[in-house]
Amino acid sequence: MASNEFQPLQGMSDIQAPEIHVWRMMEERARALFNSYGFEELRTPVLEKLSVFQRSLGDTTDVVKKEMYSFKPSKHELAMRPEGTAGTIRHLAGRGEEGLNARVFYIAPMFRYERPQAGRKRQFHQVGVEATGEPNPLADAECIALQKGLLDSWGLTGSKIQLSTRGEPSDRQPVVDGLRAALQPFENALCEDCQRRIDENVLRVIDCKNESCKKIVDQIPSAIEFMSDASRAYLDQVVGALDKMGIEVTVNPKLIRGLDYYVHTVWEISHSALGAQDALAGGGRYEIALGKKAVPGVGFAVGFERAIMALEACGVTADQFAPKGGVWLVSLGEAALAENMKLAAQLRAKGIRCGMELAAKSMKAQMRKANRVGADSVIIRGDDEIEKGVAMVKDMAEGSQKESTIEEILRDA
RNA sequence: GUGAUUGUAGCUCAGUUGGUUAGAGCGCCUGGUUGUGGUCCAGGAAGUCGCGGGUUCGAAUCCCGUCUUUCACCCCA
Predict the structure, then answer these.
(1) Residue ranges of the domains in chain A?
(2) Which of residues 205 to 224 on A have a Cβ less than 7 angstroms from any strand B atom?
(3) Which fold is adopted by the domain A324-412?
(4) What mean pLDDT is predicted for residues A313-334?
(5) Which of residues 89-128 of A touch strand B (CB under 7 A)?
(6) Cβ(A304)–Cβ(A124) below 8 Å
(7) Phi, psi of A189 (to 5 degrees)
(8) pLDDT of A1 higher than 50
(9) N- or C-end of chain A: fewer Cβ atoms within 10 A?
(10) Within chain A, what is the greatest distance between any pair of CA atoms?
(11) Architecture of domain A4-168+227-319 in CATH?
(12) If 0-12 CB within 10 Å is exposed, 13-18 middle and 19+ buried, where does residue A100 land?
């Protein structure tokens, strides 16, 4: 058990072998998939001006209001990014015309000061994409398809996609007014939080987990019904396009996504293996105004920590991706040790995974090590072999071994 | 931020109402005739009992504080 001084901060963790192998698998497959869709990688700084997040996520949202790591080292108040979209759009907005029609992805750590639990870290990691461009239901559908493809590429099964719409910006007020009016008669029956939410953030009443609130919400019209015909048609087109691609989604008007920048399509992907924190990915269409420029786009993010939990439930575990195979060199005597150092370098130069014991250990110990690292073959050299310029090559699976010259070994490697 | 919860060898965990040198399994190390792994057998190393304080003749065990884990709320990926 590590004592305190060796522990990372609360809610942060060191990611090491063997877990790291599933992380790398996910990253590699994500990069390959994004490449096939024509997305370029973008790495933005962890630190941004606080205003980047305030203006895009909304300065009344919990993420901005109470969960940010922010500080003021000089003139500007800074914050560590709590999500990837704001910084990405900050960057794209600066690229002018081409930034308004860009396809980028990121794989990066994010920071939120929350009470940690499994699948909710203070430093957590997301893979996400942003595709900027005017609202287009096909772009939204393609984004969801890409996200689904990403989960598939990892072997993540059993997730559910829930879809809804925020409508156009001009729908906001009618929705808020409509919901307030509809909830008015039930106000006293709502939970304490919801009575407050009616005025502060009426959308939050819709996804309240309180049973009696749920019953009331079931009786009133959904938010979508207060939106314009155009907004509803947009949603229908997204659903239609997804259906053509064979992607199953559930339209859930009660799905609420908190960040202010969302317009039109919003969605969330959940997995039953995750408990109450069951959302492992989300996404939506947005319009983010930075300065005079409003950047429209659509994007998604997937949380690594949560996706990994879901993957474990699917039987996808880190040790399946641990590096194995290669060659292990066994040295008997000082001369062999020196010669094997040279041979190892030659094999490694050919890209072969190659290991050896650098201390004088018994053959038994060296063989055990070879077995443990999963070597396919072992090359054994002692004084006799060095003198003759040969080595014993043992196949670990079969247990057979034969003598080869070093030239042969290097040639066949 | 609210209310709970966890912490004993590298890992998973035992440890009875406070009582000698804190245990197990797995892993690790060393042997089991000369230079041969995975199975088996024998032996061995390894623990500030999260940390700090207190109560007591005596604390892994009781009390307080603190850090950390997990769970729910909240929020979100």
Answers:
(1) 4-168+227-319, 324-412
(2) 208-210
(3) Rossmann fold (3.40.50)
(4) 92
(5) 112, 114-121, 124, 126
(6) yes
(7) -85, -10
(8) no
(9) N
(10) 96
(11) 2-Layer Sandwich (3.30)
(12) middle
